[in-house]
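Researcher: Quick test of sequence recovery. Tokens follow.
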């Protein structure tokens, strides 16, 4: 399951959107306005001060950290590129505002 699928399922399960609303949004070529703090920031928005996440879930995150030698009994720390599920906080469009440009 991809992060987008996880977010859609969480949005429906938490009552933020119905399945029909999600289908309509996706058919119009848009994503549902429910993103992590970092995704909103990348899009030019900032989460308003004091806002709490609408949904707490787990999303896939990529890492290329080296394996620890103690964990697997090896002496060299070889790179271990992989994805893992990490805790994620999702915010809606009504919780963010455009970052002011000077």
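Model:
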């Amino acid at each position: 399951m991809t992060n987008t699928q996880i977010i859609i399922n969480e949005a429906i399960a938490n009552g933020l959107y119905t399945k029909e609303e999600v289908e309509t949004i996706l058919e119009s070529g848009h994503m549902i306005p429910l993103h992590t703090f970092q995704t909103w920031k990348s899009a030019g928005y900032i989460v308003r001060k004091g806002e709490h996440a609408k949904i707490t879930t787990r999303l896939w995150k990529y890492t290329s950290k080296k394996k620890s030698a103690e964990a697997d009994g090896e002496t060299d720390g070889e790179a271990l590129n992989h994805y893992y599920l990490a805790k994620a906080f999702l915010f809606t469009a009504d919780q963010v505002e455009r970052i002011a440009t000077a």
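Strands lie at 34-36, 45-47, 55-63, 82-92, 96-98.
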